[in-house]
Amino acid sequence: MFRRLMILAVVSALFAALVQTALGVNVRVRVEGRTQTIFGMAEPTVSTSGASALDSLEAASARGEFYYHVTQFSFGPFVDQIGRYKAEGSNGWTFKVNGISPQVGADKVILKESDTVVWYWATFGPQGGPPTLSLDRSSPNCYVVFLQNDAGQSRPANGAVLLVDGRRRKTRRGRACIGRHRGLVRAVLAGAVRSNALR
Q1: CATH for 24-123, among 1.20.1090.10, 3.40.50.1100, 2.30.29.30, 2.170.130.30?
Q2: Spatial contact of 118 and 30, defined as CB atoms under 8 Å apart
Q3: Which of 47, 100, 110, 132 is most buried, taking the most CB atoms under 10 A from its CB?
């Protein structure tokens, strides 16, 4: 009896995984270009037709009406262009899922419901790609900015600048309060990928 229950549980889990892969998921997506955000400054939720990170780019492209190109290689599909910018030399497109750069291609990363995918333009060096900024609200009108490396490890983004309503506010140890504002708040820091946007 126990054996039958175990087999049933394994078969049910496999079926659920296959259904999720076939049906897609709802994920948050942002695409950061060389000089500006291409899609999803506030990381909107998009519904994918499949469950891979590559499917998230397709869903964002359809919703945001921007171009991207994929080249097939022996190791799998490679995103070699988003918008106007083609990958060349040590510059190109990469992505993070929940703040971590996967060690496999976008077609191999299976997303879960509510994951966050950030596609961004990067110049790669010996240490990998540039760090990304993550913006959180610490209290009303106060924010904290974190610098994340490829492994998803975070530290305060000392010296990051908050942008809102045409104003700039430099952070101390990644923290700053900006007072009343109407627009979205973003963070920038030289050498890092722009942050998400918050109200």
Answers
A1: 2.170.130.30
A2: yes
A3: 132
Q: What is the pTM of this model?
A: 0.85
Confirm if 149 and 129 have CB atoms less than 8 A apart.
no
Residue with tokens 């971590």: 100
Which H/E stretch holds residue 176? strand 175-177
How confident is the model over 173-182, as pLDDT tens digits? 999 999 999 9
Which is it for the CA torsion 38, 40, 43, 45, positive or negative? negative
> What is the chain's length?
199
Which among 124, 115, 45, 35 is positioned nearest to 83, based on CA atoms? 35
